[in-house]
Please model this.
Amino acid sequence: MDLVDTSTLHSKLKTFFGFDAFKGDQERIIQHLVSGNNAFVLMPTGGGKSLCYQLPALVMEGTAIVISPLIALMKNQVDAIRGFEAGDDGIAHFLNSSLNRIQIAEVQEDLLRGVTKLLYVAPESLTKEENIALLKSVKISFYAVDEAHCISEWGHDFRPEYRKIRSIIDQIQPAPVIALTATATPKVQSDILKNLRIQDATVFKSSFNRPNLYYEVRDKVEPEKDIIRFIRQNPGKSGIIYCLSRKKVEEMAQLLSINGIKARPYHAGLDAKTRAENQDLFLTEEIDVIVATIAFGMGIDKPDVRFVIHYDIPKSIEGYYQETGRAGRDGQEGQCITYYSYKDIQKLEKFMQGKPVAEQEIGKQLLQETVAYAESSQCRRKLLLNYFGEDYLEDNCGACDNCLHPKKRYDGREDMALVIELIESLPERFKLEHLAAILSGVSNAMVKSYRHDELPLFGAGKEHDIRFWFAVIHQGLLLHYLEKDIENYGLISATEKGLEFFKHPHEVMLVEDRTFSEGEDDEDDDSPAAVHGGGGGDPVLLAMLKDLRKDVARKRHLQPWMVFGDPSLEDMTIVYPLTLKELQEKCQGVGEGKAQKFGQPFIDLIARYVEENEIERPDDFVVKSVASKSGNKVYIIQSIDRKMDLGDIAAAKGLDMDELLTEIEGIVSTGTRVNINYYIEEELDPEVVEEIYDWFKEEATSDSLQEAIDALSGDYEEWEIRLVRIKFLCEVVN
Ligand code: ADP
Ligand code: MG
Model:
């Protein structure tokens, strides 16, 4: 087909899509395709790839086949195109496993009538015999392979079916091919071209730089608290939090909700209805935050996502870049924050162990790149762009943690020269880890097997540890003194430029990697002990609050602990609440009832104290923990409200009575009231209730369950004591 003149393309752009101008390379790509050529489009997420095949499909003769991995995404795109074009719905169709017989017949008919300009197909459907036969009798304008990185095992989203595309195209009929992706490292890029056999394709590569995105990697210490703080500092903004496991997604969404943040979970384990509902709530801004596994986001076109948080480190840089790419699509603010600890890496490596060896090898290398990125003190933008084969030449991007807080640099000319000397002295090429081990004098199995512990340069840099040498080599790669053979397991060699440097060394300013804490096992990180943190408050204020508590208790004929527990007072000395709302929201063990009943004199005292001592209230707060980890809390409260038998509640949740009581005690300890009198009246002798109740009122010195059991277990059953304690705490204390 001939070049379509520019004004025609522009008018189609306006009438079909409502846009006034093309973005980036779109027009050149479209011209190229309609002239009958193969094209390879590398454009970051949000760059506008879809238009590069949608518009040509509408102006060219025949039907364009669009191969796309996601069923949900197809439907959206087809609906959108039908929306542009007022006429026949047959203009766009999709073929995938979600269609029934009748729908498939409809698609076939429209194809044969020649009205369909765009046909979206899943690769699985494309391989079906009957579909191949059908498409043979249709005129094809071109084939578009969207999300083309799925072809490569080196991409983050490998789909084996994608590798059959070329042979199917050959069976159907020849036509130009356009492959599109947002995540092409040089290795993935060459895989795509080879596998589709379009090595002659013109490559249209946009810069992958997203100047409006801010990148930061944080040490994973108290990540929950840090995230809550971050969200509170960014009120009303939309954000996505990615976690690796469904369980963590659920926990995090719940934790955020309990701490007053409008959040919902999203993962593949939820039923379709809930998923759609939560996604809609996010798109319509009924909620601010969606907590998700990576199942969320593909094809989501929300332009004003203001932050993307990775609670867990992603498995690859491609994945990370794709996910962070969902922030700030409108070109405005987009903060990308990732939590990192080496523990998480070890966990990921453990998950991989069940997989085939080749897959493990790839997985480990991708993960190693992520570690290098996280630990680096280099400009994050430079690292990311370099990963995608692009040089970023500015010294300071001004929008990443490492550029905003640069680490001191040192002249590393001797270190760099030593690396090159080692590489050149070896008869073969080796991986980065191996070279670093030799220089730092670590004789691991690999080093021994090559007898490299006998080399003259073994331990030549042993005043530094292995990680120091990782950093030197990584920077050698960035500076192009070294290069990595990606086809060959990442073997390192020196470049011309590196050899030149070696002959005439000059100043190279290097920087050491950052150090991160080991990271905790986060299995139990929302246990109350971890959340309390213990002490750390203002001892003078604490003493004053304790005096006040004594007064209040005396006036009301209560024990001091019934007014506020020690942990509550300690929290007050950390966060200095000035309103009843703050008192309730930010202090452990203070529910609404308690705040109303006792709070006023306490916040008055704190306000005076803050003013007299000119205290700057810290931006600190106490994370309200999810008392019931298993997500039973809401269910239990609602069931008790409905006066359901405790035995039935326990059974419904697969708990025994003991565990149920523990759950209820957890609920009550956060200051929430439940009324279990209906159950106590059924099950306990009124005299027993009265005696235990009186003991709490008169003799208990704290709300401790242990104290009660020690004092009373001679006369009463433990479950009786626990039930009455719950009753007492709810009626008198909370
Ligand atoms: P990609 O597939 O590259 O991630 P999309 O094709 O989904 O990107 O497009 C991203 C966004 O850019 C969409 O909201 C789309 O409507 C918009 N867009 C595409 N082309 C243009 C254009 N020429 N002018 C304005 N907006 C555009
Ligand atoms: Mg796309």
